[in-house]
Each structure stands twice: as structure tokens, then as C-alpha cells.
Amino acid sequence: MIKAILIFNNHGKPRLSKFYEHYSEDTEQQIIRETFHLVSKRDENVCNFLEGGMLIGGSENKLIYRHYATLYFVFCVDSSESELGILDLIQVFVETLDKCFENVCELDLIFHVDKVHNILAEMVMGGMVLETNMNEIITQVDAQNKMEKSEFSSFFSLYRRLSFSLPGRTGRHRLVLQVPLLVPCLP
Amino acid sequence: MALKIVKGSIDRMFDKNLQDLVRGIRNHKEDEAKYISTCIDEIKQELKQDNIAVKANAVCKLTYLQMLGYDVSWAAFNIVEVMSSSKFTYKRIGYLAASQCFHESTDVIMLTTNQIRKDLSSPNQYDTGVALTGLSCFVTPDLARDLANDIMTLMSHTKPYIRKKAVLIMYKVFLKYPESLRPAFPRLKEKLEDPDPGVQSAAVNVICELARRNPKNYLSLAPLFFKLMTSSTNNWVLIKIIKLFGALTPLEPRLGKKLIEPLTNLIHSTSAMSLLYECVNTVIAVLISLSSGMPNHSASIQLCVQKLRILIEDSDQNLKYLGLLAMSKILKTHPKSVQSHKDLILQCLDDKDESIRLRALDLLYGMVSKKNLMEIVKKLMLHVDKAEGTTYRDELLTKIIDICSQSNYQYITNFEWYISILVELTRLEGTRHGHLIASQMLDVAIRVKAIRAFAVAQMATLLDNAHLLTGNTQRNGICEVLYAAAWICGEFSEHLEDPLSTLEAMLRPKVATLPGHIQAVYVQNAAKLFATVLRGQEGAPADRTVAQETSQLLIDRLPLFVQSANLEVQERASCILQLVKYIQKLQQKDVEVAEEVTALFAGELNPVAPKAQKKVPVPEGLDLDAWINEPPSESESEDEGRKPKGKAVFAKEESKHTKPRYTEVDEKELAKRREVRKAEQANNPFYIKASPSSQKVYQDGVGVEHIPVVQIDLSVPLKVPDQYVKLEEERRQKDKADKKKKDKKKRREKGEKGRRRKGDSGPESEEDITPAHMVDITTEEMPENALPSDDDEKDPNDPHKALDIDLDKPLADSEKKLPVRTHRPDEVLRSPVDDGEGVEVVPELKKKSGKEKKDKKKDKDRKKSKEEKKKKKHKHEEGENLMGAGSEVPVQSEDSNEVAAPPPATTTNEASDLDFWLSNAPVPSNPQEAAKVSEAPSASTPEAVSGMAVVPPDSEPEEAKDTEPEDTKSSKHKKKKQKKEKEEKEKKKKKKHHHHHHHSDGAGDESVQNGNVEEEEPLPPMSNYALLAENSYIKMMCDIQGNLQDGSQVVVSVIFENKCDSFIKAMEFNVLDSLNSKLQRPEGAGPHDGLTVPFQLPPGISNEARFVFSVQSIVMPQKLKGTLTFIVKTDDSSTHEKLDFKLHFTCTSYLITTPCYSDAYAKLLESGDLKGSSLKLEGVSQPFHHLLARICFHHHFSVVERIGSCASMYSRSIQGHHVCLLVKTADQTVSIDAKCDEPGLLGNVLDEIKLTFSQC
């Protein structure tokens, strides 16, 4: 089971948090802070697993993370998940984001956290891996976005166009996706 | 109205949307909180509007704020409103918000039930999907109960997208509503073979998750998973399954044996590291579960260790980490194989990566020996110095202590060294583990007598330097060691060189800043020291002033503690203060008081085992649940504490002895009380007396001269451990020299030691290192007559505990629907073939075994279970166990019955027969594979004893012959028995029980399910393997089943049994194809070529092979002629032989037991697509449930519903024809009304049913 999925940037600002067990808002923030504290002080070329310790449910759990450019993607999982499998899942997740947002960068996650949630929902459901095939994920996400568009009259679409064109795409730095694949990808 | 909407929309344009909010927050870095609070106010306004779009926008923003840590639960109702919007866009926003902030105690959740149900059944798959996703995050027990049925229906949705989500969410439903597990499980299992890989993977996911918590309930799925494992190419699925097997093998060692080969193959072949790693892990689990008896056992370990070494040496830190992790698992059972890689692991301790260092530390734990302990700890101490970050340092600290203290300090040869290590560790700043060090100090000082003098000296130094430790008192836990130091100095004060100065150190004003419980110990032990000082000085009357000065010191300093806020400190201090004042008075009168004061603390304290209290046996005649007084009347109170509990009773017992408190007690009274208490204690069985036993033995048994003595200058203050290492080296040298002289005596000593220390099993060379101190470690005291008990109590709050449900029991009618509304007593169908799970099983081979006699007794009080059937029986037992119908039928008539057996009954899935599956070499499901697969070296170990069919490895037929003489002898016997298997089905079930004892203790908990069968008349025995052909050399039994996956295939499983004393090899199976049915041959083979049977048969052995036939029409029954050719090889000659047979494909064999829910069944009948036919059977005298069971078993039907003497049944053909039966019985007449969409098929099936009943 995946217990939580956290995305935060190099300064510990949360960009997405998904807890599959309930915690109070304060606890959640504390977990994010602690996780950031643990993860951020690690060198680039150390292993991507961390024993969770006090976090979420104790010693049975592990933190598995990857660091892409300005963002950390952290999965907190228990012993039933394969460590290397989750690493690959993170890679699939990021690559999917890259496809959906076209060269994803931190700003996309900042302004469209709801979309990121929707993409994530097609991959992981209630803490269990739902789909690992990137094309399948993208197909479903696209189909839903299409449906969303079709629900709006022209008036609304005007509004939407206004609202969606706002965040400027200047000065953004791409997430480096060419992180060398450390392990052979799962199919 | 329209205008209003437009106006509202225009207004909306001026609302902030999520992007505006985010931007706003980014622009207000300085006053973020203030900005957000204004935003929340705006959101509250927006939520008050009628426009759902505005609300949705507001909720969307709230979701973002929730992520930033703001509580948004106040908007829960608005979230529900947005969820119920008809627009997908808003609905999705609503569900997302709900999934982020709803939880079990959100009260509005109960309003959502109907909305969610509506969304689940929405025609739009994404509405359903979004609802499922949301629900997976906030499902509550109520929601789970109310929606379980809806979700179960979705598991069979046409869209794989919905199916996979529905399957996954079932896990959450099970957790919240465990009652749903059993009814839903058959369908879940079905999904393992779903055509869509996503759904399949989801089902694997859920079952693995379930099985991880309660593995024993899922053992029966092993064959199915095995099949998936060998056929799947999806690494995600493979990893899950392999992980699952890792959890299952400890329960069923035979499973492990079966797994080793395919896993080893995967290890060799896969390129995916993740898969390789999981395979290695599971192989390790298998090897752990097989304590011995694997021929290539060590080879497998070597393979694993070797692969792991490659991982550890990899430059990828992730692999290194995982390699170490897996290595530590091997370490537990095969420390030797790991110890040879010590170099590698020590190297990892220097890794820059903390996670890797931690893993390496774990491994070190198992690698220490007497020889290298000091070296390893020295290395660790260096790391402690270097370590940055308290977590890692703390971890190092605990590891050092763990390593040293493991198995009762087994590896410590010099306790002075250990004490100095502990003292050294107290210098760590900011560690959390002060109490750990403290408890080690206490433990060592109490249990190792010889070390006390040294320990006391060290502790006194610690106390003297207490200010170093308490520099930043409150926040660091290291001051805990002062607790130990004070106690040790006080308790063993006779060893103190200068008790007075230590006393002075303990009464410094700074002490008052320590935590209360430590102060309390200080005060108490100050009194002990006081007693020692007095005694030391009274001998010399000249120093009387010193004694009085000491009293004065106490009187001066103690008031500080009397003022303490801590009650314990206050109480002790005031008590002791008064005592000292009194003593001072006496001293002024020149009265000798030392004796009396010392008597206050007389007696020795012994360590008590932590479980001692729990193990106190309940005295005979004491009923803990009985009322002591008349219970108060119900109305008086609803206090839950009314019932006395076991523990409470003992606690009270103890409290009897506590004396009432006085602030002032005079000496006499104290002494008197002490006497009384001693007397009481002497009579009290619960009081642990200072038993001289262990220590005495130690002192008397080993002469003092044999205790190796170390010359150490005790006055040396805090020492560097190195000194001790050197000293220890010297000592060892000296010992070695001495050893030659005292060889004889030494040996005696060793014997002594061996007895006292458990698990002292180091290699021979280690034994040479004699410990510097004998360790009085063995006995932590236990109450007399302590009850042996295992207290691995499970956490009662574990949600998974509720899911410990037997899934193999067939579903009772009442369970088929969810939620369980009604119960139909007595209508539980006792057919073993109900849902395809409990399918009857093929007894294959039985052997005589002497052991069975012993088992007979067990038989009598056995419980029964049906998850597995066994294949052994014994004539003796038959007589005893026969019950009901079975015993009435003479063996002879059964025999003839068998010959004219009804069409071979088949099972829908081989999974049901776990034992059968486990006892055989893996048989590939089609001949192509069969031809390729070399024969699996199946185990021939414990099975032989209990009579399992055994396939010895190809390569060693001779050996097999030797190891199993019993088999050969009993082969003829077997043949006869096989015919009788029918009548013995009942008994098999029973015997199965002790069969369990043979093979797996883990599977001990069996269901009582079949107990009911006994009460009524037992079912008539049934078998699904029918005789195909036999001659004097070989016998063929066969079973024909439709192939679930492929509508045009039929699988024929043939059991070949060697009946002669010679070796049978080169078997070739050939069938003359008809137009309709063809044997599937490997590519390139001609249409008339035979198929090689992929194994050979030593005498008396049987094995199973499967052959796949493709059929076009399934409407008519068919017969195919075939021949088996083989070579019989005796010692001096070999002959070609052949055996002709006729394969009979009945229409029944095209049917597959398929569970059907009554609602679907009703729909099917209503649809009008089915054509009817009917059948009347006269003179059927068997009970109705037997009749049903027969139809289920022989003809692959399942009962949909049964009411009284009427039942509806269902089955499906491999090509998807529905067959429905309505069976009624009255006065020995059975009428069957049948409906099917293929009348030809139906007619034939009915004919076959008729035939079945005409034969019984």
C-alpha cells in the first residue's frame, strides 16, 4: 500500500499532498515538513529509500523519492510495495505529467494542482497502484478533460480561456526529465 | 431567470479562481496568513451563492488551501453540494475535495450515500470512476455496508476502466465491512483471470494485500497464482505475486519446493532488477521455510548470496541498499553464508549514504562473534564520533548495545570493557537513548556479580561528573544514566572506596534540576550510602564526629528535596530526613545505630523476568470470574469495571502487603513491620524471594581460582576502551598459557558454562576465549509453576484482524447477497461443489504408512476442513471412520460401480486441490509446453511418509527406488484402493486433519465447516477421475475439463500409474483425431504424431500429464480412440508395450461450474432466449442434498438457490451457453426442468444426468 504521496520543492513548499490515511491538517503539515527535512539533506547520489521512522505508521514504512530539478516526489509506502517498482512508478508519473503539460515544470504544478490530482487518480487509487501504463493513463485523462470542455457553453469557454491563459509561461525552467534511468523500466 | 444566470456568470468572472489565489499568495509572501484569511472570507461568501459554478470554484480553492494546512472541514456540506452537481467538471472538483478532507468522523458523509450510489450507476463511466476514486479515500463502515452491493456489481461492468477501479476499491470495502469479504470473494477471484490486464493486475493487487495479512486463508489460491506467475509477462503483476508467495511459503513448505525452480529460472532470465530482487527475496523466504531437506538447498542460498553481492557491489546506491536489506534476511537463518562477506559489509559502514550504513549495521548484528566483537564495536565507536545527525548516532548507539547484549551477552568476554563502553557512550550529546544505556548498566551490574566493584567505581565517577551530563538537562535523555549510576552506587555501596564523597556528590543542589524520578532514586540511595558510611565509621569510635557530620550533611541538604514539586521525591525525602534526624539524636547519645540503619536496606535484589507476573499460575480453586460479593443490581450502575479482571485480582493481592503510610516512623516499628513483611513474603508464593540457587551454583561449582581474574587499576577514571582491548588481549594470551596446565579443570568449567548459557554455539576456536567474568545471566526470576505460554498477542485494533475469514467455505445461500439481511437456517447447502471453490478432489495415490496408526487418535478429536483433500487412507482407518452411508455400502458393489462410472467428472479449477497440486511436479497446461519443460525435480522427502504421490527426479531413478521401498511394496495395494476411493471421500476429509500435522503446522487453524455434514447423512462419495484404460503395466485415469480461457479447448488430465516393478519410459500419447476434435500437437508435428509424455515412471509411481484438445462443436458427445505406447525397462531387458483407450468427451465435460447470482439468474430466465426441456427420474431414494451435490459434482452445476425440496441450478458451457435447471423432488421422483440456449447440448446433458442417476 502507498500511504502518502507528497510533492514539494527544494524549499519544502508543498506542491501536492495526497494522504491515503486520514491525518489532521496540522499532522499533515508536520509530516510534509519532516519528510522535506529528511529528504532535502540527502546528497544527489545516495539511494532513494529512507526509513520513515516516526512518520506515518512507523518503521514498517519507507520513503521512496526522486528528485527532479526543483521538485521532490516522495512516496511513503509499506512493505507490500516493491521499492524499485515504486521508483519506476514515480518515473511514469513524472513522464505522464510531462506529456500532459508539455514540458512540465514546477509552475504547472503550482497553478494546476487539481489537474495533477486528476492524473494521479488514474495511477493510484486509495493507496493501491491502479495503472502503470502511461498511454492508458493519458487516454483516460484526455477523455475526461474533453468531457469537461464539452460541458461548457461558449460563454463559459470564454471565461475559461481567460482564466487559463493567465499564468505566464515566461522564465520557467523545465524539469529535467533526463534523469538517467537507474533501473530498467518495468514494461 | 436566464438573465440571472448570465449575470451570475459575469459576476463570477470577477471571482478569484484557483490560479488567482495561487498568484495572490505568491505575491503576498510577507503577509501570507492575512491574505489567505481574506481569501477564506471571500470563499465563504462564494459558497453562500446559489450558482453551482461559483461554489465549485470556491471548493477548488479550498482544496488548495487544505494542502497548505488550513482546516476546511467547515465547508464539508458545500463539498457535498458540489459533488452532487450533474456536471462532471464540478462533480470531479467536489469528489477531489472530499477525498482530501473527509474522514470517518466527518458527519456529512452519511448524506452522500445516495449521491454516490447514483454516480456509481451513472451511464457515464467517468462519473462512476470519479465516485470510485473519491470513495476509496473516505469510505466509512456505513458507506461500505450500504454500497458493497453496488460496487460488487461494478466488478462485472463492461468497461475495464470501471472494473479495475471497482476491484481495487473492494479492498477498502473489505477493511471497513469485513462481512462483505466472503460473498465478494468468488467474484474477486474470477477477476484474476479477467481478459483486461489492468483488471487482472488490480485483482492481484487486492488479493495480495488481503493475503499479506492473513496468508493462511489464501493458500488454496496458490495454484492459480502459480499459473499466473508462469504465464504473466507483466512485471508489476509478477512482483506482486512473487511477494505474495513469499508470504505464503512459511505456511506450506511444499509450496516453496515447487517455487524454487521457476523462481530460479526467473532470476537467471529476467533483466528487470526489480523482479530479480523480489525473486531473490522470495527464494530466501522459501529457504527459510524449508529448514532442511532440499537437495540443492545450499546451491540456492549461494545463488541468492551471489546475486546480492552483485547488487551490493553495484554503483547504484538503490541496489546496494536493497542488497543489504535482503542479505539481512538470509542472515537470520544462514549466518555462515553471509559472514563470508564481512569485508563488503564493513566497507558499507563507510558509505556516505546513511540508509546504507543503517542497513550494514543491521547486518553487523548477526555477524559478531566473541573474537571480533571488540573490533567491530571499536569501529562503531569511531563512527559514533564522526556521525553527524542524531538519528544516525542514536541508531549506532542502539546497535552497539544490541550487538553487545544479544543472546544474554553471549559474545562479551570482558565486562569491564563493556562497562567502559557504556560510560563512553554517556558522553554522547543529545541522544534519546539515555534510558537504554541506563538499563544496560543496571542489568550488567546486577547480573554480573564480579563486575560490581568496577561498575560502582565507574558510576561514582559519573555521579561526580554529573554536571557534564546535565549541561542541558531537560532536553537530552542522557541524564537517565544518572538514575542507573545512583542506584548502582547505593545498592552496591559496600564496593565504594569513598562513599562519603559520593554521598556528597549525590546531594549537590544541582541535583534538584534533574527529572523527578531520578531525584527520587538519588534520595533513596543517599540513604543507602548513609547507612554504609555509618557502618564504615562506627568500627572506629574515634571518627564519631565524621558520622555526625554525615548526618548533618543529610539534614542540611535534604530539605531541598522535601520542597520538591515531585511527590515521590518529596515523600521519600521527608521520610528519610526524619529518620536521619532521629539517628542524629541517637548518635548524640552515643548509641550504636549502624546495624539498624543497614538493616533498612538488607536483602539482595534479583532481576525479575518481564513476563513473570503474567506467568503466575492461577491458584487451584480460584475462579477469577466469580463474584466475590453479590453483584450490585443492574440499575445501580453501568460501570464497566464491575467484573473483576484477572490482572486486577493480582494487583489487589499485592496491595494487601503495602503498609499504611506514616510520615514519621520510629525505628522499632519499622523493624517490626519488616519482620512481619518478611514472614508474609515467605508465605507468599507470588513474592520473588532471593533465591540462592543460581549464584550459589556459580560460586560453588566453579572454584574461585578458576575465575579468570583481570588485573585492573580500579582507581583509573573514565578510560578509553582501547585499554581494555589491550588488557583483554593480554588476558587471552595468559589464559592460553594457563589453559594447557589446567586443561582438565577447564573442561569442567566449560561444561558448567555450556549448561548455563543457552545458544553458546560459536565455532570451536571461539570456545578457547574464556570470558573474564562468569555471567550470572541465565535466570531472570519467574514465579514458581510459571505457565509456559506464548504471548504473541495481536493488536486487537488491527483492522486486518477482522478480515481473517475462511474463504474456502462454500457460500451459504444467505451469504450470496449483500448485505446479509436474512438467514435461512438449515438451508446451507452441504455440497462441496458450490462455488467452484470447494470442488471435490481427486484422490490419486495412496500408500500405506505405518505412521498412520499413530495418527488415529488424533483423528478422533479432529476438526475438519475442506480446503485441501488428501490422498491417503489406510484400511484400518476405514473401519473406524466409516460413518453413515459409506459404511453401509459393501466394497464390492462400489467397485463395480466405479467401473461403469459416470462420465468422468471434472473440476472447474485445479486450484481447489492444493494438496494434489503441491504433491506433483508442475504440469504444463498444454502439450507444447509439456514437451519442452524438463521434468521438475519434485520433492521426495516428507511426502513419502504420509503417502503423497511422488515424482522422483529424472536423473536419479535408482535412488528413488531405494528411498521408497514402501512405495514399491504397496503399489498393488494401492491399485485396489484406488477403486474404493469413492466411498472414502468422507474419510479423506477427516484424515486431512492429521495430514496437516505432517506437513504444515502453520495451517493449523482449520474451519469447522464440514462438521455439519456429519450431523446429517454424509454425502455419497464421488470422484472425478475415471478409469481410462489399464493393463498389467500401467493404469490411466483421466479427467476432462473445459478450458476457461478458450472456448474451443478441452483439457484432458491423465494420471499414469506404473503398476509393475519395472521402469516405464518413453511414453507416447496419441489420439486419432476426428473432424470435430483434434489433439493439439506442437508446431511442426504431423497430424498423426504422438505426444511424448514429459516424464518417466519408476515402479509404483504415478504422475499426471495434460493434453489439450481443440473442439469445434460442443453440442454432441464424442469418443476418440487413442493409444499409449511405452517402453518397459527391467534390469536386463526392455520391451515395447502399448495400451489402447477410448476418450469419452461427454457434453458435461464442456460445462464449467460458474457461480450465478439469483438476480442474474432471474434475468436470464426472463430473457426468453432459452429453450426448455425436462426430465423425470423415478425411484431416486437419496436425500435431496445428495442429489444436488451429485449434479453439482458430476455435471458442473452450481446451486443458485435452494428452497425446501426445490433448487435452481446453473452452469455454463465453454462456449458460453447458459444451462439452467430447476430440480424438484417429491416421493422418490425427481423432476428436472431445464432451459438452455442450445437445445442439442441440453438434451445430451439431461441424458447424461439421467445416466448418472440410473447408476446409483
TrEMBL record, chain A:
Membrane topology: Peripheral membrane protein
One Pfam family from the record: Clat_adaptor_s
GO cellular component: AP-3 adaptor complex; cytoplasmic vesicle membrane; Golgi apparatus
Localization (cell): Cytoplasmic vesicle membrane; Golgi apparatus
BP terms from Gene Ontology: Golgi to vacuole transport; intracellular protein transport
PROSITE patterns tied to this protein: CLAT_ADAPTOR_S
Keywords assigned by UniProt, alphabetized: Cytoplasmic vesicle, Golgi apparatus, Membrane, Protein transport, Transport
InterPro entries: AP_complex_ssu, AP_mu_sigma_su, APS3, Clathrin_sm-chain_CS, Longin-like_dom_sf
The keyword Iron belongs to this UniProt entry's keyword annotation: no
Residue ranges of domain AP complex mu/sigma subunit in the record: 1-147
Regions annotated as coiled coil: none
Superkingdom field: Eukaryota
PANTHER family xrefs: ADAPTOR COMPLEXES SMALL SUBUNIT FAMILY (PTHR11753)
Function statement: Part of the AP-3 complex, an adaptor-related complex which is not clathrin-associated. The complex is associated with the Golgi region as well as more peripheral structures. It facilitates the budding of vesicles from the Golgi membrane and may be directly involved in trafficking to lysosomes. In concert with the BLOC-1 complex, AP-3 is required to target cargos into vesicles assembled at cell bodies for delivery into neurites and nerve terminals.
Entry similarity comment: Belongs to the adaptor complexes small subunit family.
Protein name: AP complex subunit sigma
Species this chain originates from: Esox lucius
